[in-house]
Design goal:
The protein is α/β, with parallel strands linked by helices and 295 residues long. The chain has one domain. The chain is 42% helix and 9% strand. The protein is built from 10 helices and 8 strands. Helix 6 crosses helix 8. It is globular and about 50 Å long.
Length: 295
């Protein structure tokens, strides 16, 4: 995956809270066994920790953001081609450019969602969380939360091959949840049910499909400021990295790796095969209307 070297990155779409500590805060999901359980439950769920039953009732509001680091280092597509954090800024820009234009095409208005970079722990509109819950979308403040260290865990803990587009898939999936929030479908996952046919699984698979839809259009969606696509190249190998990441976080793969057995009745995200299938559905068709996993 390559970005236009001369493209200007819009760092206003990212809030950099890395290295910040929450004064007097206590994270609701920590390390060790509790952190592992939280990760198994929440990975890619796309909702805040309070909706997972993991949040205390005394969570402070989100800390104010600082863009100093990304503003200084993430200015152009050239920076995105060499730095992980700048790459994520560029992916956020590209994903939101696509959905903004798609909503406009449908006669609707897209509300942008910032991505918050954090390390260790973070206060959100959905409560306090640590890196153990993995990347997530919080409907309480309509923000995506991402600890960049997760990408290393995606390879070392979950066995994904990694790669730049594997990272992009993660971000695009979370923005799929933002689209669901804006269109009113995200709430269908909050019925507390689990299992291969549950609304929770259908919600996750739809977000995978939406990630594929964005990938289909990634090299043709014009940047809002330049009129040229921000992403200039997306290869078959890139897409394979995304599919590999989707499979690595399938419920069956995670359960087998960490529990030693597969229990479909507890699934919340879908199997490796399902996650790949729905990403491919979006990538092949490029049509959000073909992502109706609830039908």
């Amino acid at each position: 995956m390559q970005f236009d070297d001369d493209a200007r990155l819009d760092t206003s779409e990212v809030q950099d809270q890395r290295g910040r500590r929450i004064p007097g805060g206590r994270a609701t999901v920590g390390g060790g066994v509790v952190g592992l359980i939280g990760l198994l439950l929440a990975l890619f769920l796309g909702v805040g920790p309070d909706q997972l039953g993991l949040s205390g009732g005394d969570s402070p509001g989100p800390a104010s953001s600082s863009l100093a680091q990304v503003q200084q280092t993430c200015r152009t597509g050239r920076d995105a081609n060499i730095r992980d954090d700048c790459r994520m800024v560029a992916v956020v820009n590209s994903v939101q450019d696509y959905w903004s234009q798609e909503f406009r095409r449908q006669g609707a208005a897209y509300t942008p969602s910032p991505t918050v970079f954090f390390s260790g722990e973070v206060a959100t509109g959905c409560g306090l969380a640590t890196s153990a819950v993995g990347p997530f979308y919080c409907p309480g403040d309509r923000k995506v939360y991402l600890d960049l260290g997760f990408f290393n865990e995606l390879r070392t803990k979950f066995g994904a091959s990694g790669g730049a587009f594997a990272q992009a898939y993660v971000v695009a999936h979370e923005y799929g949840h933002h689209v669901q929030d804006l269109t009113g479908t995200l709430g269908r996952s909050q019925d507390g049910m689990t299992g291969a046919d549950s609304n929770s699984v259908r919600t996750e698979l739809q977000a995978d499909c939406y990630a594929g839809v964005w990938a289909h259009h990634a090299t043709t969606t014009p940047d809002e400021s330049t009129g040229r696509p921000l992403i200039t190249s997306l290869t078959t190998a890139d897409v394979q990295d995304g599919l590999d990441a989707a499979a690595a976080v399938g419920d069956d793969r995670i359960q087998e790796r960490f529990q030693g057995r597969v229990t479909p009745e507890t699934w919340t995200h879908g199997s490796a095969q399902q996650r790949q299938q729905w990403f491919q559905q979006g990538f092949r068709t490029g049509d959000p209307a073909r992502c109706d996993t609830f039908r």
